[in-house]
Design goal:
The protein has 114 residues and is mostly helical. The protein has one domain. The chain is built from five helices and no strands. Helix 1 runs antiparallel to helix 2.
Length: 114
């Protein structure tokens, strides 16, 4: 097993990094920005998920410590500094440049009013 010698705290921090990168930008924008569309939420969630998995894998803890390479491709242990802003940008771009649709917030408000 490749992660058998890793600290449980590190494994949990990887799970939180992936979860925060995929969920936090979409949840915050859904609560605070009326312009978020379903397409933007999907783009933000997928961008956060994929970028966090890739950067955790290329980081020093997995790339060097687990896989045994001499140096890591991505130099930081915690990728969320980069993946959360990327997810925000992708959610914004997906909402602005996707086909015009009603926002998630207005859909929720409309369904609650019915």
């Amino acid at each position: 097993m490749p992660f058998a010698k890793q600290n449980l705290g590190f494994i949990m921090s990887m799970a939180f990094a992936v979860s925060a990168s995929a969920n936090f930008p979409v949840l915050l924008l859904a609560l605070r920005w009326d312009g978020l569309t379903a397409r933007g939420a999907l783009w933000g969630g997928v961008a956060g998920l994929l970028s966090s998995i890739v950067l955790v894998t290329l980081g020093p803890t997995v790339w060097r410590d687990v896989r045994g390479f001499s140096h890591a491709v991505f130099p930081y242990r915690e990728p969320t500094l980069f993946t959360i802003p990327l997810a925000f940008v992708c959610a914004f771009l997906g909402s602005r440049f996707g086909r015009p649709r009603s926002s998630i917030v207005s859909e929720i408000h409309g369904s609650l009013a019915d």
